[in-house]
Write a sequence for this structure.
């Protein structure tokens, strides 16, 4: 207890030294938190727009489907399968999907599109498609109309109430051709999908492709994306020996996963460099501090202070400085994080175009995940411990007489 | 005397060379004639027929019923009559163009050249097969290579190589044509690298529509195991009164 009091007073005996050391830690923690939060927040947004709003985190498919993704390798939609999977922990709902390519035509304009047949009510709870309606109405149960992505609708010059002609090859080579009324237009955040997505009810899609009661996939909607591995393992176990396979979003969207991994890796290297610089800064002040206080230490030891207690004292002082810097950094970063976590930064100009060509919505998000902060605290703590090795050795080994004389 | 002998030998030599040349041409002509005759035997001057097409795949099979009209080598029209989902779809070939009418979406589609090598209605027939049937006679050079017994029938084996500037997608075709009735019993199609692409065979020869013709056709692609397309002739009438004006876009929307 006494030691803490002495350490605290020691800190303020030389305010400038304390503040300089704390300031370098403050900047390190401040930038590290912002960098990590921004990186992780942006990944979350990327995953959200590419995965949650489209493919889902886990899909059950015919084993043969993923190789060629042809409409000839479908799976049967059955109640028993639904019951089996829905009863697993962590599974919220199952979303039947029938998805394939088609040519969409209106007037003289034609474009290759993705036609997605969904169960409008169940699907909406995961993807939130209806909340992104720009015009018209959302699909109802077994609707025979379609909802168009916004950019696609402006390319085809289609409006709510118009009809769009779809043409494709269906199940087992059947000619798939039909006319669909446009019920609504939605803004899809993912630019690639916004250019080519048409959504209809699963019944209408099955009729169009001549594949009654067949699906390309059954999307497993899960409670939290952090449970993917757990739920995957359970579903896999249930489907063992069947002709169905279970895929996670990282299997289905390898590009996004790799993009995130490589960006995350370079972010971590940047962070390591930042902490390295800060480490040498802190080490420098500590070496200076030890040299300056050589005489003081010598006096303390000669009037009866144990060297062990003295080194504990220096340890406590340093940790105090560390906490001071970290707390200040956290307090300074927090308002920024809280603000942008709720309203992500929308990029414009060249940067936005770069994002769009990669098929990502040009948004920079911020994450408030607790481990971002905990990790910085742990790293700073280790930086300080390593920097403390020098003064500790000095305290244990200095020559009393020489130090007193100096 | 000696001179006359030399001259006569020379003349004889020239004559024999010329006659060999003539024979060669004769031979060439007859190969083309055989192909032409075989082609005519299959379709007549004009025809109206009902056919079943069965597409066989490793995991499934599918059948389509259709009615077809042909006039010469240049014109043909096909209407799908079953299954219900595809009923009413019409394909028309006019010279080298191919059109598709889909009543459900009221669209007339001209099949682009890029789609010509794709399967027709998901079968092993390519769109090119539909359009360029007549091309076999005029755009290839033909040569009888040998005689061979195929399926119990004595056949001419004719190798056909496309002419230099013809727009044919094949490297060569080899046809087995029966000597007695000039019926095409088997055709092998090779690509530009001379790999076998597919084999078409004809069997179940019987009288139909007043002619003796094969009524069962099978196409087997070479590189897809357990996969084939079977065409069965249900009925055929030859030399019906069909004129060019039958093969129009307007009529595509009307035919039944």
């Amino acid at each position: 207890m006494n030691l803490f009091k002495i350490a605290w007073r020691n800190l303020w005996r030389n305010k400038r030294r304390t503040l300089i050391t704390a300031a370098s830690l403050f900047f390190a923690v401040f930038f590290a938190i912002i960098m990590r939060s921004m990186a992780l927040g942006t990944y979350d947004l990327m995953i959200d727009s590419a995965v949650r709003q489209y493919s889902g985190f886990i899909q059950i498919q015919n084993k043969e489907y993923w190789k060629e993704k042809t409409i000839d390798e479908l799976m049967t939609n059955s109640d028993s399968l639904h019951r089996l999977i829905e009863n697993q922990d962590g599974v919220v709902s199952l979303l039947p999907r029938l998805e394939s390519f088609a040519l969409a035509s209106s007037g003289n304009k034609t474009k290759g599109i993705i036609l997605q047949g969904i169960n409008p009510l169940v699907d909406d709870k995961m993807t939130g498609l209806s909340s992104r309606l720009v015009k018209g109405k959302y699909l109802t149960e077994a609707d025979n109309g379609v909802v168009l992505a916004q950019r696609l609708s402006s390319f085809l010059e289609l409006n709510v109430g118009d009809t769009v002609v779809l043409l494709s090859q269906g199940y087992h080579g059947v000619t798939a051709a039909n006319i669909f009324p446009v019920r609504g237009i939605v803004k899809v955040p993912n630019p690639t999908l916004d250019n080519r997505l048409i959504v209809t009810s699963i019944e209408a899609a099955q009729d169009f492709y001549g594949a009654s009661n067949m699906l390309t996939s059954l999307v497993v909607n899960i409670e939290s994306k952090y449970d993917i591995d757990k739920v995957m393992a359970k579903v896999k176990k249930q489907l063992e020996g069947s002709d169905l396979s279970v895929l996670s979003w990282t299997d289905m969207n390898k590009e996004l996963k790799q993009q995130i991994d490589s960006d995350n890796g370079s972010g971590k290297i940047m962070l390591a460099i930042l902490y390295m610089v800060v480490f040498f800064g802190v080490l420098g002040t500590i070496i200076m501090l030890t040299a300056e206080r050589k005489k003081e230490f010598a006096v303390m030891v000669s009037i009866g202070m144990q060297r062990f207690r003295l080194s504990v004292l220096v340890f406590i002082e340093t940790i105090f400085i560390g906490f001071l810097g970290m707390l200040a950094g956290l307090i300074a970063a927090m308002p920024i994080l809280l603000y942008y976590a709720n309203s992500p930064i929308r990029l414009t100009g060249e940067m936005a175009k770069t994002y769009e060509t990669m098929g990502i919505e040009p948004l920079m998000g911020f994450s408030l995940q607790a481990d971002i902060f905990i990790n910085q605290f742990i790293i700073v703590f280790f930086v300080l411990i390593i920097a403390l090795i020098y003064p500790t050795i000095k305290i244990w080994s200095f020559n009393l007489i020489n130090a007193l004389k100096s | 005397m000696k001179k006359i002998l030399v001259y006569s030998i020379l003349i004889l030599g020239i004559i024999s060379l010329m006659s060999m040349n003539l024979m060669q041409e004769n031979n060439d002509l007859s190969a083309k004639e055989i192909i032409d005759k075989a082609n005519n035997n299959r379709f007549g001057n004009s025809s109206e027929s009902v056919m079943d097409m069965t597409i066989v795949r490793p995991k499934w099979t599918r059948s389509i019923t259709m009615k077809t009209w042909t006039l010469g080598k240049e014109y043909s029209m096909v209407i799908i009559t079953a299954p219900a989902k595809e009923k009413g779809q019409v394909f028309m070939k006019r010279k080298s163009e191919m059109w598709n009418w889909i009543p459900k979406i009221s669209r007339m589609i001209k099949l682009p050249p890029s789609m010509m090598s794709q399967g027709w209605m998901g079968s092993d027939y390519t769109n090119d097969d539909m359009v360029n049937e007549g091309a076999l006679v005029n755009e290839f050079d033909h040569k009888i290579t040998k005689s061979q017994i195929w399926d119990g029938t004595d056949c001419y084996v004719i190798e056909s190589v496309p002419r230099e500037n013809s727009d044919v997608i094949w490297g060569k075709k080899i046809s087995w044509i029966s000597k007695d009735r000039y019926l095409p019993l088997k055709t092998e199609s090779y690509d530009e690298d001379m790999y076998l692409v597919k084999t078409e065979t004809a069997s179940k020869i019987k009288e139909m529509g007043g002619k003796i013709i094969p009524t069962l056709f099978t196409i087997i692609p070479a590189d897809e195991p357990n996969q084939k397309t079977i065409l069965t002739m249900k009925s055929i009438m030859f030399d019906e009164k069909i004129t060019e004006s039958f093969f129009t876009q307007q009529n595509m929307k009307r035919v039944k």
Observations:
- Confidence is low (pLDDT under 50) at residues 21-28 of chain B.
- Helices of chain B lie at 2-43, 127-131, 135-138, 249-252.
- DSSP finds four helices and 13 strands in chain B.
- The radius of gyration of chain B is 22 Å.
